[in-house]
Amino acid sequence: MARMTSSARPHLNRRLAAFGTTIFAEMSALAVATGAINLGQGFPDTDGPEEIREAAVRALRDGRGNQYPPGPGVPELRTAIAAHQRRRYGLSYDPDTEVLVTAGATEAIAASLLALVEPGDEVVALEPYYDSYAASIAMAGGTRVPVTLRPHDGSFRLDLDELRAAVTGRTRLLLVNTPHNPTGTVLTRAELAAIAELAVERDLLVVTDEVYEHLVFDGAEHLPLAAFPGMRERTVSIGSAGKTFSFTGWKVGWVTAAPALVSAVRAVKQFLTYVASGPFQYAVAEALALPDSYFEGFRRSMLARRDILAEGLTAAGFEVFRPAGTYFVTTDIRPLGEKDGFAFCRALPERAGVVAIPNAVFYDDREAGAPFVRFAFCKREEVLREAAERLRRM
Length: 394
Description:
This protein is of the alpha/beta class and 394 residues long. Helix content is 41%, strand content 16%. The chain is built from 14 helices and 15 strands. The strands form four sheets. The protein has a seven-stranded mixed sheet with strand order 2-10-9-8-7-3-4, with helices on both faces. A four-stranded antiparallel sheet has the order 11-12-15-14. Helix 2 crosses helix 10 (278-288), helix 4 runs parallel beside helix 5 and helix 4 (104-116) packs across helix 9. It is globular. The N and C termini lie far apart (56 Å).
């Protein structure tokens, strides 16, 4: 058999051949083309605190961060991240050796998985999952092993027996997201304790995506897995300024972990962006020091928006899974006589003037996610009311 020539071989690395253009790009383009209200991609339609925006302007004018910042991140931000973890969760991290600033949480996820996973390693991830998880595991040459959150009594729940059964001798790492995108599930203390016990028992590393840590509702509590017994030295915790302060375009994220883990992630990160977001790092350092009243006000604001959208979707005939965290609502479209989330979301802009995301893109088993559709509620209240009314008329 003749060997395929380089000109005949597909240009895209075969590990990424299954991914292509993200659903977010497709649906956002559809929103622009149709003039529909975009409740698909998770970005706010208003900016965050004015004083933090002014802090970025001040940094620009003062010449702070206009040239390459330090590779691990500016000292002011690393110190602020450590102080935030200590104040909120009682976790102590050395700003110099246990904190790394990244170009958003997406780079933190990619750098962590590329650093810690080798070809042949298995990564157990909660399904449905944010789409960059699958791509990053593939780039690292790892094998993704999904454990599916399934609907039960109005929310999506983790089956701990299924999680334990998914771990094999080839499992290297658990990838945990709480509060969970897209389902809005917040893992309980008991669930996190069981995950911690499993990780210690099987000597597994854990990467936790906690970007929605400040958006929990209805008495739910965000508990960092790193705070559980035996987890401090084996957990890479990922945070982000974008979701908490509504400046998603600034792309400022971070990793906190033990020195050896941070060193490994930094070794990869330096060959991805090297550094990024210089002036914005100084502004985020000030944002993390905002009083608790800011974080509580932000949470209350998003809770009100959640309820506006959830009630509107219920009135429109969807089955609604009211989230305990994040700023997304997952719905079941079967009460509307629909069963294909892809077809439903591609037709929705023309039918109702609203854009949503089919949850099936977050599943390995597309059939399991087929009837579920995600809407974002990080928009102005009047926009959410208009979207709800359009959906009701549909």
